[in-house]
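Before the break, one more example. Copy the sequence into your notebook; we will annotate it together after we see the structure.
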Amino acid sequence: MDKLLNETVEIARNYFLKLGFKNEQIAPLIESGKRDLTKELLKLQKLLEKHYKEIDTINLSLHALKGLFLTMGNITIADKLLELHHENVTSHDILEIKKILGI
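Here is what the structure looks like once it is written out:
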């Protein structure tokens, strides 16, 4: 999970620069984004450790993470989460989610 967060922070820094943000504007955006990502990743990790029957809650978390990754410019991970966000999450999907997110 730490590797993904660090990669996303670097992507976000470059993404925000390309959007025209100044360095002093970028730092609080990254701090906020990293905090929100960490919180949601830990929430999803706990959901996945408990059991897979909370599909609606897992999907809500995947949706939130997809949005956070998009906001921070990590389109690759957001797209992967979009593919896994559906009504019939399987045990294979759960393993893939854990692999992608490093949890």
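The CA atoms of residues 55 and 79 lie 19 Å apart. The chain has five helices and no strands. Try to locate both features in your own notes.
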